[in-house]
Specification:
269 residues; globular; 9 helices; alpha/beta
Length: 269
């Protein structure tokens, strides 16, 4: 089944059309849930410590954990106290648990244990990310990094990093199970730009130049993100995707030139 789905998602297999109705239904649920948070019907929980989520739009690994390690190490070297929360995939139990050096990987998950060993930062795992973030916030930290959890909207965040597989891209651009996408790419780019645009409004309600700039960047990013083949940027490490740079910058609130963004970091990015 896994091999068949991989062929359908990334090699333009013939089964995508058969699964399309399920993808439409899934997309409707995802869209309704996001609108519920946007309109305040469901509320996100904010913490006193800022949260940055490192996630992806597709199923499977894209290098999130190596990026979290890299960020935590660089931030710690700059004097920023960082805490990390993780889902603890395949961990035993559903409660919140602190990860220590002597933990069994079967109890907390192998990736959280790796995060603890590589960074030395306090790490907490839990299915309930809000509870995990509250637990790690008990430590004297200044920033929380969430390994995965882009779609976990209940936990409010100050920023998002979207990690994209440079070789596979977004596959056939269909939603689960017809494709690898957890949510539409264009919707995320638009939502990120819209958040930055709203933040750029002055108290009098007059939109300033920053708001127009972010909306312009979103319009320029969306056609490339929807394309079957995402154009590559010449001269960047590993031929990094131009569109992924735009999406990363919009999500993080970068300024002008986001369509040419390039980050120096893990090769998996």
């Amino acid at each position: 089944m896994e091999r068949w789905l991989t062929r359908v998602w990334y090699e333009r297999g013939s089964g995508a059309s058969l699964l399309a109705p399920l993808g439409w239904a899934y997309g409707g649920i995802v869209g309704a849930r996001r609108r519920a948070y946007t309109r305040g019907w469901l509320r996100s929980v904010s913490l006193d410590v800022p949260v940055v989520v490192i996630g992806n739009l597709t199923v499977g690994g894209t290098g999130k954990t190596p990026l979290v390690v890299w960020l935590a190490q660089r931030l710690a070297a700059s004097g920023v106290a960082v805490g990390i929360v993780s889902r603890g995939y395949k961990a035993a139990g559903d409660g919140v648990r602190r990860v220590t050096a002597d933990c069994d990987w079967r109890a907390v998950g192998d990736e959280p244990l790796l995060l603890r060993e590589r960074t030395g930062c306090p790490v907490v795992v839990g299915v309930d990310r809000v509870a995990a973030a509250r637990e790690v916030a008990r430590e004297p930290i200044q920033l929380i990094l969430s390994d995965d959890g882009l779609q976990h909207l209940r936990l409010a965040r100050r920023g998002e990093l979207v990690v994209i597989d440079g070789s596979r891209g977004f596959g056939n651009h269909r939603l689960l199970p017809a494709g690898p996408l957890r949510e539409p790419v264009a919707r995320v780019a638009h939502a990120a730009a819209d958040r930055r645009a709203r933040a750029a409004h002055t108290k009098s309600g007059i939109r300033d130049a920053a708001a127009d700039r972010y909306r312009m960047l979103a319009r320029r990013a969306r056609p490339a993100l929807r394309a079957r083949r995402v154009p590559r940027t010449a001269g960047t490490c590993g031929g990094r995707y131009r569109a992924s740079g735009a999406l990363l910058s919009l999500a993080c609130g970068a300024g002008a030139g986001a369509d040419r963004a390039s980050l120096s970091g893990p090769s998996s990015l």
